[in-house]
Structures are given as structure tokens and as C-alpha cells.
């Protein structure tokens, strides 16, 4: 897996839910509420994020764990070319660890990683079509009451179902997930993001 591919996966962890932000036939007030939650999910912090992909074509689940200090610092642990890999970006300077060795990323590679969190990268992803949206019903998850949001969006290809579980006090997401939507039923690769906000998180450059 190349670094650019890994960057795309990291970006997906934050932006796959962004189609729910477009102006559509869905209730504008609901769309605005979802938009505020999604923007807060990236801008608030620091936070931990576990990104998972399940039901992949090769049967191998993907898991990436991250700590994020907005706006441009993060640490991630995942797999690269079948090897455990760590990546750190601190104030735009990037580092990659494969095996036991840390290396400094070239500036252009570090820029690709940093772009994951840049507003100019996220913002263009906020405009695909939305077919329907549901806002703020209360349910139980992870042992506590949460607000439940749903969005069905259709751009190029099959419709996608997005669900969000949101802490009613902080208005920050606990979980965001998505999957191809086949007539209301899940189909294909299932992706899930689990959020934990922790103000004590700090990230230092490894070199």
C-alpha cells in the first residue's frame, strides 16, 4: 500500500460521512444539524479515533487507530504493505515507522498526510446529493443514551447509508459508520469510526 493510498484511507475516516451536508430535499434544519456535528467532529479535540473496514472483498478487515490534535497533528497505527506501521505528523512535519525504524517523510509526502485535516481538502467533499436524512432520535449505545442520525446519499454509484451516534451533551460523535445501501439493507464494505475525546492527548515528533 503506497503512502498516498494510506492517506486516502485516513481521509476516509474523517470524510466518508460528509455527503450528508448538501442542500437537498431533506429537511434543511436536519442537514444543518448534521453539518454542525461533522464539522465539530474534526475541529474539536484532541481525540482518539478507531477506523475499521469490515466485509472487504479479500476478507481482511482493516483497522487504523489514531490520536488527533487539531488542526495538523496526529499519530496513527495500522498496516502498510502487510507490516505494522506508525505514522506521525506534528505541525506539518511527517514521520513514518516501518518495523523498528523511523524515517522522516519528504515534505511533499508530509503535505499529503497533513492535507487529511486541512479545511480546503475536507470542504469539497461536502456537496454530493442526499436522498433522505433523519435527525436526533434517542437510543441506547455503549451503555448510555445517544442521539441517532441517518443519511442516505447517492452520488456516482450505489446509494450509501450513513449513521451517527452522538453524545447529547457534547454534540460530538461517538460513532459514525457507513455502508452501501441496497434498498434499505446494508451491502458491501462496512466502515465504522469510533471517537473518544480526551483533552490530555499530546503528540511529539519521534525524531
Defining traits:
207 residues, alpha+beta, outer membrane lipoprotein receptor (LolB), chain A, 12-stranded antiparallel sheet, 44% strand, globular
Give the arrangement of secondary structure elements.
Layout: H1 3-15, H2 28-43, E1 47-54, E2 62-69, E3 73-80, E4 83-90, E5 93-98, E6 101-104, H3 107-114, H4 119-122, E7 130-141, E8 144-153, E9 160-166, E10 173-182, E11 185-186, E12 190-197
Antiparallel strand pairs: 1-2, 1-12, 2-3, 3-4, 4-5, 5-6, 7-8, 8-9, 9-10, 10-11, 10-12
Structural commentary:
Helices cover 20% and strands 44% of the residues. The protein is globular, with a radius of gyration of 17 Å. Strands 1, 2, 3, 4, 5, 6, 7, 8, 9, 10, 11 and 12 form a 12-stranded antiparallel beta sheet that branches. It has one domain (3-197): outer membrane lipoprotein receptor (LolB), chain A (Clam). The two termini are 24 Å apart. With 207 residues, it is of the alpha+beta class. The longest helix is centred in the N-terminal third of the chain and has 16 residues, at 28-43. β5 (93-98) and β6 (101-104) form a beta hairpin. Mean pLDDT is 76; it is low at 1-24.
Q: What is the residue-mean pLDDT, rounded to a whole number?
A: 76
- The DSSP helix count reads 4
Categorize the overall geometry: globular
- What does the radius of gyration come to? 17 Å
Order of helices and strands: HHEEEEEEHHEEEEEE
What would you call the structural class?
A: alpha+beta
End-to-end separation in angstroms reads: 24 Å
**CATH top-level class:** Mainly Beta
What percent of the residues sit in helical stretches (DSSP H or I)? 10-25%
Number of spatially distinct domains? 1
What is the CATH architecture term?
Answer: Clam
Total number of beta strands = 12
Strand content: 35-45%
The major pleated sheet works out as: 12 strands, antiparallel
